[in-house]
Amino acid sequence: MDEIEIETRVNGLARRGRVEPRLTLADYLREHCHLTGTHLGCEHGVCGACTVLLDGAAVRACLVLAVQADGAEVTTIEGLGEPDALSPVQEAFRDHHGLQCGFCTPGFVVSVTAFLRDNPDPSDDEIRAGLSGNICRCTGYQGIMKAVRAAARSTP
Amino acid sequence: MKPAPFAYHAPSSLDEAVALLAEHGDGAKVLAGGQSLVPMLALRLAVFDHLIDLGRIPELRGLERRGGTIRLGAGTTHAAVGSSAEVAEAVPLLSRATPFIGHFQIRNRGTIGGAIAHADPAAEYPAVALALEAELETVSPRGQRTIPAADFFTGTWTTALADDEILTGVTFPVWGGRSGHAIEELARRHGDFAVAGATVALELDDDGRVGRCAIGLLGLGSTPERATAAEATVTGTAIADVDAQGVGEAAMAVLRSVPADLHGSADYRRRVGAAMVARAWRRAAQEALHG
Ligand SMILES: Cc1cc2nc3c(=O)[nH]c(=O)nc-3n(C[C@H](O)[C@H](O)[C@H](O)COP(=O)(O)OP(=O)(O)OC[C@H]3O[C@@H](n4cnc5c(N)ncnc54)[C@H](O)[C@@H]3O)c2cc1C
Ligand code: FES
Ligand code: FES
């Protein structure tokens, strides 16, 4: 099939690419932009590992075609913080054992970042609903709950 | 988990989309939020030669209050429906159904038109549309038409839409007066499709009788269902005399093909369904009586 030229801004940098229409945004980020922090667990919308911000809204990058993101602003886990300057959500996940193997973590951190931006002072029930779209097979979620509570307190 | 190849079209107007769909025939499919279609493509449950993206057509978005109705463009996202104060005021059931749909990341992309066209029997918006007698507006090369929700859902994932027809908007009537609205569902985990669920809208007359009511059912058939017989038995009854559990059981009596799968037998679903109707009835009645 004919490839299509797309232009996006990823973590603040302008990117141009030629993609097959069937390429997902997740594969575009991983394989064309070499941003492998966006993880792929299920590739059909169930696990949340691939969550990125598309024009600020948290979405599943495996359910967005790269061509649909033409003209959009994308933020991945790499755009949220640096190893020596973690974001408040990343910091809280580290401090409160919000991760073990780390596979699900980029998706959680991106989701929680958007969630707390829109719900700065959430109740535990709201946090649970906000986390429902991300699956973790390691932590049992309690560390993640603690991390989100702490991040909510630390972000003004 | 990679979709088979297809050609991609991104029309910027509805006319262009209709023409593309007509040109490519049944090898083509429209793409809205992609939250149901892309998984089906990834799993190769569906294969199309052409996808026509409706996401760049501004005419499909937005909502408009017109007297006794409110119209939502088919491309309005679940998130936009759920956060609209106007929708909350005009059609409380739509707002209250929204948090049950998947997760917030899904709601940021999924559209009301996509959910209705996809016609999952356990989905929330189709059940609300059916129960509230929404009107579905469409366009095709043959022109525009309006399909009553009662004629729209023809089977699991199948609708009255022709292959070359696009859903453009959904119009809901606004219930006024002393009314109450509630949705209840049981899902195995938050955000999963419901095992069974129910929506209730009811309106009281000046004497405290049920002036009218609408009971929608989800997950309890091959399409969303409406419990018209149960509605008829309670209409005209003083609200204080209505036995909510009885309404639930009456609502189950009309069901012809309750699904059975590893999440529950048909009998189990009927019991859950009756309980969901009863709970929703009580909450709606409470709201109608006390605001
Ligand atoms: C993890 C997960 C959980 C979910 N949970 C729920 C849930 O609990 N309840 C629920 O209701 N949904 C749920 N969904 C589905 C979600 O609501 C979808 O957004 C919705 O079903 C389809 O809307 P869409 O805009 O994404 O459409 P798409 O996926 O783009 O399209 C779906 C179908 O509708 C057709 N279509 C779309 N728009 C039009 C139009 N304007 N005219 C004609 N045909 C059209 C497409 O051709 C396609 O066949 C879930 C999805 C995921 C991934
Ligand atoms: S990889 Fe996208 S949701 Fe699982
Ligand atoms: S930390 Fe291993 S899956 Fe979540």
From TrEMBL, chain A:
Annotated PANTHER family? OXIDOREDUCTASE WITH IRON-SULFUR SUBUNIT (PTHR44379), XANTHINE DEHYDROGENASE IRON-SULFUR-BINDING SUBUNIT XDHC-RELATED (PTHR44379:SF8)
What residue stretches are annotated with the 2Fe-2S ferredoxin-type domain? 4-80
Name of the featured protein:
4-hydroxybenzoyl-CoA reductase subunit gamma
Query: What are the GO MF terms of this UniProt record?
Result: 2 iron, 2 sulfur cluster binding; metal ion binding; oxidoreductase activity
Q: Which InterPro entries match?
A: 2Fe-2S-bd, 2Fe-2S-bd_dom_sf, 2Fe-2S_ferredoxin-like_sf, 2Fe-2S_ferredoxin-type, 2Fe2S_fd_BS, Beta-grasp_dom_sf, Diverse_Oxidoreductases
Q: Is Oxidoreductase among this UniProt entry's keywords?
A: yes
PROSITE patterns registered for this protein in UniProt: 2FE2S_FER_1, 2FE2S_FER_2
What are the record keywords, sorted? Answer: 2Fe-2S, Iron, Iron-sulfur, Metal-binding, Oxidoreductase
Q: Which Pfam families match?
A: Fer2, Fer2_2
Tell me the pathway.
Alkaloid degradation; nicotine degradation
TrEMBL record, chain B:
PROSITE patterns reported in the protein's UniProt record: FAD_PCMH (PS51387)
List, alphabetically, the SMART domains matched: CO_deh_flav_C
Has UniProt tagged this entry with the keyword Flavoprotein?
A: yes
Q: Which residues form the FAD-binding PCMH-type domain?
A: 1-177
Q: Which InterPro entries match?
A: CO_DH_flav_C (IPR005107), CO_DH_flav_C_dom_sf (IPR036683), Diverse_Substr_Oxidored (IPR051312), FAD-bd_PCMH (IPR016166), FAD-bd_PCMH-like_sf (IPR036318), FAD-bd_PCMH_sub1 (IPR016167), FAD-bd_PCMH_sub2 (IPR016169), Mopterin_DH_FAD-bd (IPR002346)
Q: What's the superkingdom here?
A: Bacteria
Q: Which Pfam families match?
A: CO_deh_flav_C, FAD_binding_5
Keywords (alphabetical) are: FAD, Flavoprotein, Oxidoreductase
A GO molecular function assigned to this protein is:
FAD binding
In Swiss-Prot or TrEMBL terms, this protein is called Carbon monoxide dehydrogenase
